[in-house]
Q: What sequence folds into this?
């Protein structure tokens, strides 16, 4: 007899379920450049990717960036009143006066980080389970661990990468918090570290610090905040000068990024007044935006100080290339600041724009000096900042052009996202294998 083909055929194989990754961003991601670069790279590695951010009434609940979905989850539940969008504290705090403020302070200590717990509540309810949770910072990792536990019960891999974007418990954010409370926060963070599947951070100096002080089994993987490779057009763009309404001969000193206290903004403004034919252009966002726009109109600063709104992260490098020098005048009064390498530094490097950095910003200073791409100054001293700016801007044209060329060469050969993301993608492939 001839065998029945239907009886001997292999049963059909169900199609493989695509790997799903969630990048947890405890802000509105409007947009958040590091999270966006990570999400795009995960999508390129074959993941279905969602950025899960904090909802705001002025932003859409869902957007797309190519294959990446950005979803914003509005805070809900009993903790919503502590959300920043709701004012950061319940109405009864004001009504109860000193007693209310005392209770509010106790809640913020005991339920730390309380400002994102309403967002956590919505994520627990609405976020679809995933194989990988990339937690951007200390406010995202606790809920990532909870979500991963639930994801494993649903059949997903449920792996957690804790991305240490700041050494937040060694920063000015906790300068006013009593030592015993900060010590308790550290114990809690160490517990989250032990439960995470991997630790990632933004540079080697922070990785070394964490390896010495945290309960980690292996040294954290470094994922620099570098920018994707970029080739400058010829001639260079002139976006900043045109947007600021400055004359052709005016030299642009660029401050880029978040606008707020302890950014060296006052010192930078005073320094630029001491540099001939120069203006400070501030391109960014933050709580000091109105204050700086008011300064634009002050007689001392008119035509020498211009505040512009931020541009999309994909455009920042091109706009930065239209500056003559960038300034990073952050005071190094915490370990977190001393070891920082913010986006603005890498964006300037990628753009080929020389950089003046604060003398105690150890990691950035080492790169600036090793590569010969700028100058170093005391960020608290406007005269010293001005001297550093002049040392860059007043060079002979060929020396200045060589400095720009060195920055472009360093970005293209050593400090680019395509190179930096490789170890991270290898780490993820080990945590959540394909197939």
A:
């Amino acid at each position: 007899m001839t065998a029945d083909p239907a009886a001997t055929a292999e049963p059909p194989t169900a199609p493989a379920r695509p790997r799903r990754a969630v990048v947890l961003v405890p802000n509105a991601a409007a947009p958040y450049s590091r999270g966006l670069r990570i999400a795009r790279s995960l999508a390129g590695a074959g993941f279905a990717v969602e950025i899960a951010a904090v909802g705001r009434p002025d932003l859409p609940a869902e957007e797309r960036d190519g294959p990446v979905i950005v979803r914003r989850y509005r805070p809900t539940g009993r903790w919503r009143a502590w959300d920043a969008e709701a004012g950061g504290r319940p109405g009864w705090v004001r009504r109860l006066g000193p007693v209310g403020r005392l209770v509010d302070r106790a809640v913020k200590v005991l339920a730390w980080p309380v400002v994102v717990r309403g967002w956590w509540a919505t994520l627990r309810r609405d976020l679809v389970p995933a194989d990988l949770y990339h937690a951007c910072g200390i406010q995202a990792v606790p809920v990532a661990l909870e979500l991963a536990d639930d994801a494993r019960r649903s059949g997903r891999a449920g792996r957690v990468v804790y991305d240490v974007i700041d050494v937040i418990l060694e920063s000015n954010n906790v300068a006013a918090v009593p030592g015993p409370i900060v010590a308790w926060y550290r114990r809690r963070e160490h517990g989250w570290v032990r439960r995470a599947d991997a630790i990632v951070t933004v540079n080697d100096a922070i990785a070394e610090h964490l390896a010495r002080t945290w309960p980690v089994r292996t040294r954290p993987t470094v994922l620099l905040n570098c920018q994707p490779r970029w080739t400058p057009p010829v001639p260079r763009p002139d976006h900043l000068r045109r947007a600021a309404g400055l004359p052709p001969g005016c030299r642009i000193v660029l401050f880029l990024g978040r606008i707020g206290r302890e950014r060296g903004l006052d010192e930078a403004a005073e320094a630029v007044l001491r540099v001939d034919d120069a203006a400070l252009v501030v391109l960014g966002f933050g709580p000091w935006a109105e204050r700086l726009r008011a300064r634009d109109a002050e007689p001392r600063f008119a035509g020498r100080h211009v505040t512009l709104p931020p541009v999309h992260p994909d455009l920042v490098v091109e706009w930065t290339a239209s500056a003559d020098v960038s300034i990073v005048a952050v005071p190094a009064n915490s370990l977190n600041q001393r070891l920082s390498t913010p986006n603005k530094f890498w964006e300037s490097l990628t753009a080929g724009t020389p950089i003046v950095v604060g003398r105690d910003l150890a990691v950035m200073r080492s790169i600036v000096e090793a590569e010969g791409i700028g100058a170093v100054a005391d960020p608290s001293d406007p005269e010293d900042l001005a001297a550093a700016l002049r040392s860059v801007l007043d060079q002979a044209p060929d020396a200045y052009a060589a400095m720009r060329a060195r920055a472009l060469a360093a970005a293209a050969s050593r400090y680019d996202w395509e190179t930096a993301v490789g170890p991270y993608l290898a780490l993820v492939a080990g945590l959540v294998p394909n197939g």
About this structure: The chain has a mean pLDDT of 92. The CA atoms of residues 369 and 375 lie 7 Å apart.
